[in-house]
Specification:
With 524 residues, this protein is an all-alpha fold. Helix content is 79%, strand content 1%.
Length: 524
């Protein structure tokens, strides 16, 4: 058995490999998000295509596509390069959506006077990009990158663990792989050391990377808006003017911006009935087209009927597991969140503690959970439930807490002045106040659970210590995806993905979005 010093060295090497994958994925996500977000914001035609696509993909369980991604990428780039490319690609698909939306929102809310002034003084497109658009979106990029990193850690560990499920798709170095090995070695102390090293890297990244990044964003806070506008105005004048007319242009632009950037109430844009109907018809046409395609495939390939039946049953069983775990999440998350928002006196300390705990992905605990329950009846179902529960819990808690800033002060005043408490406070104050954050957290929590199904429902030790099925449910969509890849049945794999995607889109469109609009209307 290797000593503590050797173990720490190995853990640092493995975590470094994982962090390199994460940093590459974050860099690619930021570059792609800036390009996509600015294009969508500045081109009406591109925006009509890009924004709906982003809206759809951010709600899909991307991890469910990982078996298919591995098959395609490794077929294109065989060997170790291919599997690393597949892992990085998966992490990018988890990081990019919220950063891209942040860039889009930053550019669309940029005062039109900036663009108008740039046109007046003949700034080139490259100069606008470098001096206006990129500086304007970087604060949101910094803010969203922190969230993307946390989400990416879940996908990193999960993809590394999943890739060990087949010896042909094995990540050789990675913290997910190493901690899985330590769990199966039976040495609990070494396993805990691995967890601590992982947490140490998370904390170090927070202070060495994201604190400076967030500090950059403070340059654009409310207190420094005028200085920023004045700096940009001078830059515009410098580029367009000769030295002798520079001061004249600077003075004009100063007067221009002082008038243009007076504080104005934000305009709330409500979707018109025509836009809602156009979306409805778009979804309807897409559904009809999908039905026609499926009917043609079934007519020409009769064996698809059996695949569809198998997929539907597996999806239904996983649906029950996911929503059963979500019910348990609500039982725990809602009281904890209400306590933190309305009752706790040291909320910031609790949140910091929760952030540290939440930084440990549920999948990094999967090996020890599976081994601990292996001797009990129904251990596969219990393991799946715990992984589903841990995969969605923190999304709900942080969704509610992050939304607490928007809770009207009058609610807190009513509670304090009238002494409202007990069941009355729950019915009249707490539930209504946390509902927007609860719905936002619920959407991401359910997506997190579906992503976790790929390892929660079927987990093997192939490539680690023999070839054993450590935890497995009787039937489930995650298990079906795993086995279809292992057996090389790509048609069944694609059939399962289509069904899962269709179900997620239907629920998001006709349940979550309607609930959110309803809550938004009642809270105005």
């Amino acid at each position: 058995m290797v000593g503590i010093a050797g173990l720490l060295a190995q853990l640092i090497i493995d975590t470094s490999f994982s962090w390199i994958r994460m940093l590459v994925a974050l860099f690619l996500s930021i570059i792609a998000s800036i390009a996509i977000g600015i294009l969508a914001a500045r081109s009406r035609f591109a925006g009509r295509i890009i924004i709906p696509v982003l809206d759809v993909f951010q709600t899909l369980p991307i991890l469910a596509f990982f078996p298919f991604v591995i098959y395609i990428v490794v077929a294109t780039l065989p060997g170790y390069i291919g599997i690393n490319a597949a892992v990085i690609f998966l992490i990018v698909t988890s990081m990019i959506w919220n950063i891209a939306f942040g860039v889009y929102e930053s550019i669309t809310t940029l005062p039109a006077e900036f663009i108008e002034a740039a046109r007046i003084y003949g700034m080139s497109r490259l100069a606008r990009l470098r001096k206006i658009f990129i500086p304007a979106c970087m604060p949101r990029v910094a803010e969203q990158s922190v969230l993307s990193w946390a989400i990416g850690l879940f996908y990193l560990v999960t993809s590394e663990i999943f890739s060990t499920g087949n010896a042909n798709y094995a990540v050789k170095y990675g913290i997910g792989v190493e901690i899985t090995k330590l769990a199966f070695s039976g040495n609990l102390l070494y396993y805990l050391i691995g967890i601590l090293v992982f947490i140490g890297f998370v904390v170090a990244t927070r202070f060495l990377l994201f604190v400076p990044f967030e500090h950059y964003s403070t340059r654009y806070t409310e207190g420094k808006k005028k200085a920023r506008r004045w700096t940009i105005s001078l830059q515009l004048a410098k580029q367009a003017s000769h030295e002798k007319t520079y001061h004249v242009h600077a003075a004009k632009l100063h007067m221009f911006t002082q008038h243009a950037y007076r504080e104005r109430p934000a305009k709330r844009v409500q979707p018109t009935s025509k836009k809602r109907m156009s979306r409805f018809y778009a979804y309807m046409y897409a559904a009809v087209a999908l039905i026609i395609i499926i009917a043609l495939l079934v007519y020409n390939y009769r064996f698809l009927v059996g695949y569809e039946s198998e997929t539907a049953v597996a999806l239904a069983v996983s649906f029950v597991r996911v929503w059963g775990a979500f019910a348990a999440i609500l039982i725990v998350a809602v009281p904890v969140s209400v306590y933190l928002v309305f009752m706790a006196k040291r909320t910031s300390r609790y949140i910091l503690l929760f952030q540290v705990i939440a930084s440990i992905p549920a999948t990094i605990l999967l090996p020890i959970i599976a081994l601990s329950l292996s001797g009990y009846p129904g251990h596969g179902e219990i393991t799946a439930f715990l992984i589903f529960f841990l995969s969605g819990l923190w999304y709900v808690i942080f969704g509610i807490i992050s939304n607490s800033k928007t809770i009207s002060a009058s609610i807190l005043d009513v509670k304090k002045v009238f002494g409202v408490k007990g069941t009355l406070a729950w019915r009249k104050l707490y539930i209504g106040a946390i509902m927007p954050g609860l719905i936002t957290g619920a959407v991401t929590a359910i997506a997190g659970e579906w992503n976790a199904s790929i390892v929660a429902e079927y987990f093997t030790t192939t490539g680690i210590s023999g070839s054993n099925v450590v935890s497995s449910v009787g039937i489930g969509i995650g298990k079906l995806l795993d086995l279809s890849l292992a057996n090389g049945n790509i048609v069944l794999l694609i059939t399962a993905l289509i069904n899962l995607t269709a179900m997620i889109l239907i629920i998001n469109t006709f349940v979550w979005k309607r609930l959110y609009r309803k809550v938004e209307r009642t809270s105005v």
